[in-house]
Amino acid sequence: METPCIKICTNDPGSGLCRGCGRTLEEIAVWAALGADERQRIMEQLPARLRRGAVAGHVDDELAFHLDMRTQRNVALGMSPDDARREAEQRFGELDPVRDVLVDHDARRNVRTERALYEYVNELKASHMKSAPPLAKVAYDAKLHVVRNALGTHSAVSRIQGDRLQAKREIRIAALFKEAPADFLRMIVVHELAHMKQREHDKAFYALCLHMEPDYHRLELDLRLWLTAQELSPRAAA
Question: Which domains occur in the chain, in start order?
Answer without folding.
Answer: 11-109 (no CATH), 131-232 (3.30.2010.10)
